[in-house]
Amino acid sequence: MSSLLLLVGIAVAAFVGYNVGGATTGVAFGPAVGAGVVSKLVAGVLMAVCFFAGGWTLGRNVVETLGGRIVPAELFTLEVSIGVLFFIGVALLVSNMFGVPASTSMTAVGAIAGLGLATGRLDWAVMGRIVSWWFVAPIIAFWVSAVVGRYFYPAIDRWVAIDRSGGGLFALDQSGAVPRPALGPGTTRREATGAVLVVLIGCYMAFSSGASNTANAVAPLVGSEAVAMEPAILLAGVATGLGAVTIARRTLETVGNDLTDLPITAAIVVAVISATIISALSALGIPASFVVVATMSIVGLGWGRATRTATLPGTVRGEEPAVSLGALDADETPRVGNEADGRGDEAPPIGAEEPEDLPDSDDLFEPHRTARVILMQNLVPSVATAGAYAVFSVLL
Question: Quick one: CA torsion of 86, 89, 93, 99, rounded to 10 degrees?
Answer without folding.
Answer: 160
